[in-house]
Amino acid sequence: MHIGAASPGDREGILRLYGEFNEERIASGVGDAQYKTIDGGLPWESTLDDEDCMTYVGKEKSFVAGFITLRLPEFNPFHKVGRLAEVDLMTVERKLRRRGIGSALYRAAEIQMKTVSVTHILLNVKVGNVPAMLFWSKMGFKKVSKTQFKRADGIEERTIYMVKKI
């Protein structure tokens, strides 16, 4: 498995995985992830040239098995933690999970975050997503808060925020 920065050639694989991720969200009752931009594109496409956002893919030849996108937000709600990165989205092909792909993606992203002086990584997990909670806990993340809100489409989301010092 090769882990590296996403390129425009990875678009189809990322779109396929994004679709699978979104289907799982809808099936769980959480609803559509609504990550599309106004023009219908996906945010990661604009991040390929954005120095404040990075997408990494795990590939076998040209097959994209998983991806992770991290963002260096302009606003850091944790003023005392230094430079913060946030995991926007990480997903691995459903039938290839539990084979170390997600761990390899995250570790590669963490190494890259250290090179740009990031001190902490933040993410959120939907309440009830036990596999994600277990995965991120295994990666060293700790729960820091819980929130509940109603989206514009009326769906109520409950989220657990997790952070890791790197």
Sheet with most strands: 7 strands, mixed
Poorly predicted ranges: none
Fraction of residues in β-strands: 25-35%
CATH class descriptor name: Alpha Beta
* Structural class by secondary-structure content: alpha+beta
Shape: globular
* Total domains: 1
CATH topology: Aminopeptidase
The name of the CATH superfamily reads: Gcn5-related N-acetyltransferase (GNAT)
How much is the radius of gyration in Å? 15 Å
Please give the number of β-strands.
7
Kindly report how far apart the N and C termini lie: 24 Å
- Overall mean pLDDT score? 84
Q: What's the order of the H and E elements?
A: EHHEEEHEHEE
Helical run tally: 4
Second CATH tier, the architecture: 3-Layer(aba) Sandwich
Helix content percent band: 25-40%
Strand numbers in spatial order across the main sheet? 1-2-3-4-5-7-6
Short description:
The chain is an alpha+beta fold and 166 residues long. It has helices at residues 11-27, 43-47, 101-115, 130-138; strands at residues 2-5, 53-60, 63-71, 84-92, 120-126, 142-150, 156-165.
Descriptive account of the structure:
The chain is an alpha+beta fold and 166 residues long. It has a single domain, classed as Gcn5-related N-acetyltransferase (GNAT) (Aminopeptidase), CATH 3.40.630. Helix content is 28%, strand content 34%. A seven-stranded mixed β-sheet has the order 1-2-3-4-5-7-6, with helices on both faces. It is globular and about 40 Å long. The model has no long low-confidence stretch (mean pLDDT 84).
